[in-house]
């Protein structure tokens, strides 16, 4: 029934202006603020994300948006220069290096960071 549906993801933020600046100026995307005050992100592969303002926003405690990149380390270095702080973990099943990159932990090479609203985003190597 739904296998041919066009899908999109959505999540809340507490400050639309900060989100628009972060996703545009820092991440290099082209956020569009629509007439309802919602940010739209449109990706080349047809994927879409919307971010809506929510007064009682609670940051997601899980990854809401993953960016596939060819080289996680290069992307981490570039975003770190722009002030992005990557999460660091030292748990039994999840460890990151000094840059915040998880490598060889039984999964893909990945690095997590947060948007200004505290939502988790990731860079994941293809």
From TrEMBL:
For this protein's source organism, the top of the classification is:
Bacteria, Pseudomonadati, Bacteroidota, Sphingobacteriia, Sphingobacteriales
Q: Cross-referenced SUPFAM superfamilies, in alphabetical order?
A: Glyoxalase/Bleomycin resistance protein/Dihydroxybiphenyl dioxygenase (SSF54593)
Pfam families in UniProt: Glyoxalase
Q: Where in this chain does the record put each VOC domain? A: 5-126
The record's Gene3D superfamilies line, in alphabetical order, gives:
2,3-Dihydroxybiphenyl 1,2-Dioxygenase, domain 1 (3.10.180.10)
Q: State the protein's name.
A: VOC family protein
InterPro entries for this protein: Glyas_Bleomycin-R_OHBP_Dase, Glyas_Fos-R_dOase_dom, VOC_core
């Amino acid at each position: 029934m739904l296998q041919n549906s066009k899908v999109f993801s959505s999540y809340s933020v507490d400050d639309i202006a900060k989100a628009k600046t972060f996703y545009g100026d820092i991440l290099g995307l082209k956020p569009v603020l629509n007439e309802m005050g919602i940010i739209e992100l449109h990706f080349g592969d047809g994927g879409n994300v919307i971010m809506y303002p929510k007064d009682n926003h609670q940051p997601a405690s899980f990854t809401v948006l993953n960016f596939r990149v060819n080289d996680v380390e290069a992307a981490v270095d570039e975003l770190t220069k722009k002030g992005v702080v990557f999460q660091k973990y030292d748990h039994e099943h999840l460890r990151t290096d000094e840059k915040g990159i998880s490598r060889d932990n039984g999964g893909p090479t990945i690095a997590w960071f947060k948007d200004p609203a505290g939502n988790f985003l990731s860079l994941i190597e293809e």
